[in-house]
Automatic annotation (TrEMBL):
Domain of life: Bacteria
Natural source organism: Nostoc punctiforme (strain ATCC 29133 / PCC 73102)
Chain segments carrying region Disordered: 1-20
Protein's name according to its UniProt entry: Transposase, IS4 family protein
Highest classification ranks of the organism: Bacteria, Bacillati, Cyanobacteriota, Cyanophyceae, Nostocales
GO molecular function, one term: DNA binding
Amino acid sequence: MARKRPARTGNPDLRQQKQVPMPPIEEIEQKIYSLLSPLNFKPLKLYETEEKKPFRDRILTLSVMMALVVSLVYRQIPGLREVQRVLCEEGLLWAGRIEVSAQAVSKRLRTLPIELFAQIFEQVMERMNVQPQNQAVPENWQPVCAKFTAIWIADGSTLEALRRKLKVLQEQEKTLAGKIMMVVEAFSHHPVTTWYTQNSKANDKTWCEQLLERLPIGGLLIFDLGFFKFPWFDAFTEADKFFLTRLREKTSYKVIRCLTNASFYRNEIISMGEYRSNPCQHQVRLVSVLWGSTWYYYLTNVLDPQMLSAHLVCELGSRRWRVEDAFLLTKRLLGLAYIWVGDNNGVQIQIFATWIFYAVLNQLCIDIAIALNQPLDRISTEMVFRALYHFSQAVLRGDAHEAVPYLVERQKLFGLVKARRKRHREIDAYTQQIWAKSS
């Protein structure tokens, strides 16, 4: 009788990491170099109250540290001791071979001003956004995108620290390392901005002011129930900005005008907080859709159905999961669930380094999607990342020179395009049925 395999337990974000760094890839490194412009980095002085160590101060500049932390992510180097060995033996990105201790690297991660990494991250995102975004937008969505200055998705996620391997710390096997807020572009999946707090139990509403300030006038922000509050909804309308979210259960409201009442959906203008002392001051639109035997409810302050139809409200609401995909990829695939340094400053540096490389990887996926004439949502970011190892080996053999042509030619072998399974076809058919019957 076959022996049944025991079910996996524990957090899937914290699965065993590999211990061998991925080989360097010149094409990817050139892309990273062009985005970061390390020649503009200025050496920093090490802020210490202890006895000064000029040697360490001279070597671990911002340029070297940026090469080091991005390499930790891009080459999946297991930890600081291993990155120290790689730096000593072969160098990293634009940083040549340097002899330095793992302790010195750890201390630098704890002391480098996080504001510098935040500025570099913002510069990288600006350079990424200069590139044409409509290439990643499906043709049927381009008229909608033209009506808004931006369509972003925001969500927060708890960041968990690595499983401690030291015997002394085995009792602290899993500890929380704070919470991050991430904003990504709805169609290109490009990172827009990120924030971090040490408080792992922080409410998503912590970042409401920053999110509203960052969204351009005429932009649309998609978010979940963690942000649900009437004053924030009013603030969007008063600032000429737009939001889309779900309706929280037991929210009292009054129907002001019914725009459409069809078999499978309703489209209504409502006022919220009918029984509250502080109701929502501005009217919003409630789109309700029947999926199977369950009604789903979406809220938006885009009152004009000509600007955003009920169908598109529901479709955009379902795209909120794209930011969840970004969290999954950075935490599980790129190792953000494994913290290099148990320090607030080091954690933030790791977050910025991870999102910088995620932006580079995402752009590679866009290029592959365009070459294959496929929607970006059909391209597996995970398989593209894993295929980079095979590309690096092909370069060493002299069989390949450019990543995109190589990966496109072998897309079936590497599984770059997600399979359309039966359940996907059933969902598409049912969606068409809903809106066909409702029209």
